[in-house]
Amino acid sequence: MFSEERSAEVVAASFTDTPDDRLRTVLSSLVQHLHAFVKDVELTEAEWATAIDFLTRTGQKSDANRQEFILLSDVLGISMLVETINHRAGGGSTESTVLGPFHMVESPPRELGDQIALDEKGTPCLVSGQVTGPGGEPLAGAVVDVWQANEDGFYDVQQPGIQPQGNLRGLFRTDGDGRFWFRSVVPRYYPIPDDGPVGQLLNATGRHPYRPAHLHFIVEAPGYRPVTTHVFVADSPYLDSDAVFGVKESLIRSVPTVDDPARAASLGLDNPFRTLTFDIVLQR
User: What's the pLDDT score for residue 86?
Assistant: First the structure.
């Protein structure tokens, strides 16, 4: 029989005949932790009703261009924890971080050296790097998927009709030496969408919604574990208070200024420009 003392035990027992072993394990543990939480804070009926309303509104805010539940997972640190557990770095391999809520469309295939800032707004930047394996072996033909926000802090999917489709996105393949390079603009810090339930949660807890400046990467090659990661701009605000807890020290890079008209002209960039170098090491 159900009682306050035996509540989790009774509910967990109802999953005994679950055919899928993993599902039974996950649900049983979930019930144990949820019931322990409710007892610990002695949750009131009004608070539980507020929680149900919050989750309902979170679902209602989600659509094809926005996933409010991913934002909720991000600001609670769950996205980062799941990512870290499932992609533990080793042997000097590049650390992973959160996917984020805006990898919602396929990045357009581009050639090495292409410009991904289709509106050409912002400070010009040459992004380059090399993809290698743990032994330093160059990974030719590795797929490098990149995306970033514009200088106003918005992704293209947030501003249909304002930004060109596919703006600041690109799908590249490394050359024979595992190298990649493309033209873009310096990333800018920006707030995660805070006009919905997640924004209300941040406001209620006195937290800001900002993320430091970064570029997103997904890199993969046959025979190696793919990595989902960011590269962060070293002088950006909010490196020590990222709203989604995505910053890792190994992923921070300086973005120095280059004042070289001849080199800028050869690259098709305005002078002066900045450079961001991000080498990526994959695990076998």
Answer: 87
